Amino acid sequence: MALADSARGLPNGGGVSPAAGGGAAGSGAAAAAAAGGWSSFPEIVELNVGGQVYVTRRCTVVSVRDSLLWRMFSQQQPSELPRDSKGRFFLDRDGFLFRYILDYLRDLQLVLPEHFPERSRLQREAEYFQLPDLARRLAQARAAAAARPAALQRDGSLCADEPPPPPVLGYLEAESLEGAAASAPSPTASRSPSGGPLLTPSQSLDGAGGRRSGYITIGYRGSYTIGREAQADAKFRRVARITVCGKTALAKEVFGETLNESRDPDRPPERYTARYYLKFNFLEQAFDRLSEAGFRMAACSSTGTCAFAPEQGGPADDKIWTSYTEYVFCRD
């Protein structure tokens, strides 16, 4: 609905809020907002989606009519929407996948990175935000990837659209089905620093279980406070986060759904990453998973620092010890 020239440039588009203008004015404002001609929302909106902050124009989030975001930012008032402690509009969804939702809303085009492994989850987000065209495109892309012959996929099955369901092998399961083709020597294979042949991705599987050899490093930071009574008065703090470093395919094989990939979601299977971490905080649980997958500990190291508690706002006689520890696991 077009506004008169005298109304343009005024706060809220020259409209009258329901609280200030009574029922008639309020119903007129609501009708105008429904038509897209008036809004009490700012032109630039800040969104907190699952802890990730996005800043965009209101016209972007309402670009697809009848979607969830269109109804939120055109059919409702700002006071009706949940906000975080800093006043941003809050959405309890996957904050890292929302960037693809926002990209789609900008130009209605679907552009995903190569080796994108989260199509099924992104399709679920598209369905939640009621974007049927995006959900349909993602479903078609998944169907096309599933129908693609395994021989045409780069690195065997490692670049398939979705990792197969359990067992634990995940990305590697289909590769073991290639039989002799997976163990054929590569003419471009080089040699390792120790003098032995450097295995290519299709060769680095052992013959018994079809498992890939390699290294995974587990790291964590911990801290504890010791007072006058030494160990008797020690106050230990639980491990805040367990990090995982190594090849993407290996990490996903070992830890599966317990692996948080949100800090590095688009990493191809044959690349390395140092940005994964686990969804649990128990080192023994991580060790059990590595042991069940055939890994053994090869080395470990730890560093520590000490600070007096008053510097951290604690008692004068207490000392705060902080340590960082890494465990290196390998599978031959």
Structure notes:
With 332 residues, the chain is an alpha+beta fold. 26% of the residues lie in helices and 23% in strands. The chain is built from 9 helices and 10 strands. The chain has helices at residues 18-34, 58-61, 68-74, 98-107, 119-128, 132-147, 180-183, 248-255, 283-292, and strands at residues 44-49, 52-57, 89-91, 214-227, 230-237, 242-247, 259-260, 272-278, 296-308, 319-331. Strands 4, 5, 6, 7, 8, 9 and 10 form a 7-stranded antiparallel β-sheet that branches. The longest helix has 17 residues, at 18-34. The protein is flat, with a radius of gyration of 27 Å.
The secondary-structure class comes to: alpha+beta
| End-to-end CA span | 69 Å
Question: Unreliable segments (pLDDT under 50, ≥5 consecutive)?
Answer: 1-37, 155-162, 164-208
Mean pLDDT: 73
- In N-to-C order, the SSE pattern is HEEHHEHHHHEEEHEEHEE
Radius of gyration: 27 Å
**How many E strands?**
10
Q: Can you summarize the main beta sheet?
A: 7 strands, antiparallel
Helix percentage range:
25-40%
Question: Would you kindly provide a brief summary of this structure?
Answer:
With 332 residues, the chain is an alpha+beta fold. It has helices at 18-34, 58-61, 68-74, 98-107, 119-128, 132-147, 180-183, 248-255, 283-292, and strands spanning 44-49, 52-57, 89-91, 214-227, 230-237, 242-247, 259-260, 272-278, 296-308, 319-331.
